[in-house]
Amino acid sequence: MAYRETEKMRQRKAQARQKIIESTWECVADGGFQSARVTRIAGLAGVATGTIYRHFESREDLFAEIFRLATQREVDKVAEALAITGNAVQRLDHALRHFAQRALKGPMKAWALIAEPVDPKVEEERLAYRRAYANLFEQAIRDGIAEGTIPDQNTRLAATCLVGAISEALVGPLSPTQTSELPDNDNNDNELVDTIVCFCLRGLTGTRS
């Protein structure tokens, strides 16, 4: 007689998988992907190390899943920020500012998602989500060109430049070696965000927003 998994067992497996995911993200949020050791994850999740590999083929597969889930949340936040009432420049200002502010409020999480050296599978996910951000920005730029608030230009390249500019500008401030040495100063963060957003919008419009 063939083995049939019961609903209770499926729920138990789903709960174990979710706990592994939550524990992994807890490790990443605390010290980046480098601190997310399988033994530590298993301990936090309350499962055996072998249980992790029953849900994920490898450590890299687990990390790729964590990256997908965490970054999708950030992409969704950018989409929400772009959905405000206003012209395209105002919406892009709001979205870029929101992105940078969220990153600076959770520097270790943002560092892990934006710049931390990672395995190839995770890097593939990073590239895919950079394209996701660019897609959102590209549509907003198209809207701006249509309404006359943004001059005509290559929207795909412009959107890619926005993603690159804001990501690169945040690498230094988010770096664990730098954040550990700098005082917690909202004024510094506000100045940084203002400078990044100003640079991006000048590049798009040729004028300061």
Description:
Keywords: DNA-binding. Residues 37-56 bind DNA. The chain is built from ten helices and no strands. With 209 residues, the chain is an all-alpha fold. It has two domains: 7-56, Arc Repressor Mutant, subunit A; 60-205, Tetracycline Repressor, domain 2 (Orthogonal Bundle).
Instruction: Assign the structural class, choosing from mainly alpha, mainly beta, alpha/beta, alpha+beta, or little secondary structure.
Output: mainly alpha
- Looking at CATH, the homologous superfamily of the largest domain is Tetracycline Repressor, domain 2
- Gross morphology is elongated
Largest sheet: none
Distance between the termini: 70 Å
Say how many strands there are: 0
* Percentage of β-strand residues: under 5%
- Approximate helicity band: over 70%
Q: Compute the number of helices.
A: 10
CATH class of the largest domain: Mainly Alpha
**Which regions are unreliable across 5 or more consecutive residues at pLDDT < 50?**
none
Number of domains: 2
CATH topology of the largest domain: Tetracycline Repressor, domain 2
CATH architecture group name of the largest domain: Orthogonal Bundle
Radius of gyration: 20 Å
Which sequence of SSEs, written as H and E, runs from N to C?
Answer: HHHHHHHHHH
Mean pLDDT: 92
